[in-house]
Amino acid sequence: VTANIPGTYRVTYTAKDSAGNTSKLVMTVIVVDTTGPTISKVEGNPSNWTNQNATLKVTAEDLVSGIKEYSFDNGGSWQTSNEKTFEENQTVIILVKDNKGNISEPYEVIIAKIDKEPPVIKIDGCTNAGNCTIQVEATKDKYTIPGATVTDNASTNITVSKSGSVTASLP
Q1: Whole-prediction pTM
Q2: pLDDT per position as a tens digit, 50-101
Q3: Where are the beta strands (DSSP E) in the chain?
């Protein structure tokens, strides 16, 4: 009997006493696969902020019947590929099914580092988004560039740079 290979096995017992009498018993052993696959790791979840999609790749093992399908939505749909691409942050519940229909324990992955929205810049004194025009009196010999506030929906490490200059001189 091979315990990790499903199938039907026959084991024969034979007994013989000192008078020469014999008896025989045949036992049938049916080995079935009732154990689900094991998910050992999932790669591709970004650990740093990115504006790119995240492609999750599942590594799983089934020692008896082999892997058949993968689900990235808690069993709602199944696919033969062990990879799936996600465009936005979300919680993903991964399941793996073997060739006998056994299903792994759920494996949760939280995608939380995708940021596809640009930062928002607000300049003091400007009311419209995008470009801003401020008029300055030509007689002024000095002008102070207004302050700016930058916010972002997800990232906390924002780099701000300023280019261009204002020359306070008459034409």
Answers
A1: 0.72
A2: 999 999 999 999 988 899 999 999 999 999 999 999 999 999 999 999 999 9
A3: 7-16, 22-31, 38-43, 54-61, 67-71, 83-86, 90-98, 107-111, 120-123, 148-151
